[in-house]
Amino acid sequence: MKIDTICVQGGYEPKNGEARVVPIAQSTTFVYDSAETMGKLFDLEESGFFYTRLANPTLDTVAKKIAALEGGVGAMLTASGQAASLISITNIAKTGDHVIASAAIYGGTFNLFNKTLRDLGIDFDFVSPEISAEDLDKAFKPNTKAVFVETVTNPSLDVVDLELFAKVAHAHHVPLIVDNTFATPVNCRPFEWGADIVVHSTSKYMDGHAVALGGVVVDSGNFDWTSGDFPMLTTPDETYHGVVYTEQFGKAAYITKCVTHLMRDLGPQQSPQNAFLLNLGLDTLALRMARHCSNAQSVAEFLEGHDKIEKVDYPGLKSNKYYEKAQKYMPKGTCGVISVFVKGGKKGAVRFMEGLKLAKIVIHVADARTCVLHPASTTHRQLSDQQLIDAGVAPNMVRLSVGIEDPEDIIADLAQALDQV
Ligand SMILES: *Cc1c(COP(=O)(O)O)cnc(C)c1O
Known about the structure:
It is built from 17 helices and 12 strands. By secondary structure, it is α/β, with parallel strands linked by helices. The protein folds into 2 domains: 3-280, Aspartate Aminotransferase, domain 2 (3-Layer(aba) Sandwich); 286-418, Aspartate Aminotransferase, domain 1, CATH 3.90.1150.10. A 7-stranded mixed beta sheet has the order 1-7-6-5-4-2-3, with helices on both faces. It has a 5-stranded mixed beta sheet with strand order 8-9-12-11-10. Bound molecules: pyridoxal-5'-phosphate. Pyridoxal-5'-phosphate binds at residues 80-82, 106, 108-109, 150, 154, 179, 181-182, 201, 203-204, 213, 215.
């Protein structure tokens, strides 16, 4: 099936007489008629639902759709994008291990890595998203367990050279984890470029309507975990009577451990109601992404020529340094988010934002309604000046998330707000 079809039909094949639309299994628990079956479920000898923290039919169906969209062997929904990033790393790295991450990543991910996971003893090095293969190679240590990047970075909109990162990571027998939130599988499928694991904040384009928080981890099934560097996957897990994930689950070893180990122990499960809403969003993802991208292209071209604007970063603009890379990795378009640098410093940026009428100031991006955000004073306010520069966040930068309204109305709103700067 093509991607547009998977958006609508993927993951769910109702049988005779069953609901046409994925039903909400709003139940924490499930019934069995024998204790023996229940025991087998607990030992991972049989698969089935018994408690929603581990698995639920609604979550399972929506996860299957996303796995199909990304071309992976399996996926696990989480309560938020943050939980997905947390689990993607801690599934394979523990105290004493090391991870290489792009410096240009979502502010929340940066704090999770640089503070919380560092406090738990996982060491991180942050590298430029434009690092050369040679320098990336030098960043590896004997205890490096993963490389983490974003396809199109939030908010600086760098386009990462996925093939380069995958190649160098694989030379060190280390998986590449890609946060594909902004591109979505409609515009880019990182597994086709060598990525091993994909994570998303489904709170953004996948849900698309800003109604439900969520995240997802997707496993390509392609990474060979048996190098000896990932004992948590290749040696017996005593909490499941000595199961060895790579032996029992093969290509699905990583994603199975995400569910049976970390979802069980940490518990950041998505609610069935949110998964239902996410699935409604996925139905129209391909349609919406095309519109987000064409609207953003028109808006970026309008802003680039405006005399109140210092600079516009959008990979769809020919002037953008990532134009070629975007054409290679995302020929259908990147996303609807644009970074706008307003003349007059922070003051100019704030005045522009406060003059907008249609576009609202919110802490969100990537939904149907056009909105704006000032990263330096909100999502990235904890970062030091140097960290702000590394993450590509300037004081006069406004992150504009172009929605799916009529582009003429969006441009008219921006024009009248810029008149007031
Ligand atoms: C929003 C976002 C996250 C975090 O997701 P939540 O659902 O808010 O927890 C992670 N990565 C990217 C790229 C994001 O935009």
